[in-house]
Amino acid sequence: MYKPAKLRSWLQTSTRRVLLFIGMAIGLGACMGAAGAATGSDAWQEEVLLHDGRTMLVDRSQTYGGGHEIGQRPPERDMTISFSLPGSAKRITWFSEYGQDLGRSNFRLAALHVLNDTPYVVALPNLCQSYNKWGRPNPPYVIFKYQGDAWTRIALAELPVEFKSTNLVVENFNNAAEFARLGRLSAEKVKQLNGQLRQPEYREILRTPITGSGDECPVMVSRGKIGGSVALDWFTAQPNLEACLKFCEYKKVSPATCPCHTIFGD
Questions:
Q1: Long-range contacts of 1-7 (CB under 8 A, 24+ apart)
Q2: Least CB-packed of 122, 138, 185, 234 within 10 Å?
Q3: Are 230 and 253 in contact (CB under 8 A)?
């Protein structure tokens, strides 16, 4: 039979083991949630007002999953829009895939326009890592043109000047479930929602650089295939080229993306 002192010690030890086991289980679940696959989806339709007054009905959907803080909702994992050009039965799809290096979708959407039966998509980088990945564009647009049955990225200067409006709902993360419940958003509703946004580049398509654009996003250097990135400041702070190259090696930044030769010269 256990004596009182030994019994108390045994109970304390057993309790600590139970608590440790529970903590490990919770931690494992949290890690799985942070890295997990898709956890749900939403789908709805949006009426898109084109520059010439015509409208198109766009089917829109997105899934959720990827990196996120414990207790927070997972971000958009990928998103899709599908549509037929006015007077055509051919379906065209644009897809923003999951960025393994980002832990979320590469883009958010701003606009879909058509000129001479050629569609264009105006997308926005999805937070700072995507902003760096796609070249820190200013204004912050990544633009795609549909040609040869494929989407090709083009420069802002190649986007027809007729396109002025953001005609897809820009900010939908917190309202996507409500949009799915409604089933369809009118062009007027889309305009109203975008008009409430603070950033001018979200309310209309800007053509000139924005002062201070991207200041909140430090310049990052990609680590390549192994994923992740390192702030450029760490490289510029090195005393010379040799030290910088050693830092690239230490951080496992590939020679293809190591910025040391650009910073210090050969």
A1: none
A2: 234
A3: yes
